Amino acid sequence: MMKLMKTVASGALVLGMTASTAFADSSADFKEKCAMCHGENGAGKGKVPALSGAAVQQKSDADLKTAIEKGVKTDKGMMPGYAGKLAAEQIDGLVKYIRSLK
After folding, report:
1. Which of 30, 55, 63, 69 is deepest in the core (most CB within 10 A)?
2. DSSP assignment of 23-92, as one string?
3. Is 6 helix (H, G, I), strand (E, B) or coil?
4. Would you state the pLDDT for residue 53?
5. Contacts of 65 (CB under 8 A, 6+ apart)
């Protein structure tokens, strides 16, 4: 029983460390690819929308993923797409990171 508890505890620790590492990687990707326009905390800059705002946070994960992959063109400007520039896991991580900004 004690061995099982140690195994479960070790597994939980590894999963926690993996999640923390993934979040740190997403944070770095955000700072590198997104923060220059959306701001360090996702509050937006000038005509660029706040990722922490209700309008963006109400979008589905699929909509956010599509925006990151294909880019967004509005009357205010253009956000480039990152399909082929970021791995699918990085894009998924960015969606989760954007969710953390609310």
Report:
1. 30
2. HHHHHHHHHHHTHHHH-TTS--BTTBPPTTSHHHHTS-HHHHHHHHHH-EEETTEEEPP-BTTB-HHHHH
3. helix
4. 93
5. 91, 92, 95
Q: Is residue 11's pLDDT more than 50?
A: no
- What's the pLDDT score for residue 23? 53
> What 3-state class would DSSP assign to 102?
coil
Handedness of CA 64, 67, 73, 79 (dihedral sign): positive
| C-alpha–C-alpha distance, residues 51 and 41, integer Å | 8
